[in-house]
Write a structure and sequence with these properties.
Layout (H helix, E strand, L loop, with lengths): L11 E5 L2 E6 L1 H8 L3 H9 L6 E2 L5 E4 H10 L2
Antiparallel strand pairs: 1-2, 2-4, 3-4
Helix pairs in contact: 1-2
Length: 74
Amino acid sequence: MSPLKAVAPDGTFSTGPDTTERLLTPGEVARIFGVDPKTVNRWALTGRIPSVRTPSRQRRYRQSDINALLNASP
């Protein structure tokens, strides 16, 4: 299991010394896709969309993953 990463107040987290990535809430992802936040969490539970957990165990979504899904859509 990988160690938990610290999430900054601006919603970013560090995956290494030179990489910082924006984390989106279920509500933010829901607005992007036009669905309910509970739907986004169900997608994560079924593996349709990758997610990470914050130290407080809240589910968040990497902006790069969401962008890749948007670009892959027909």
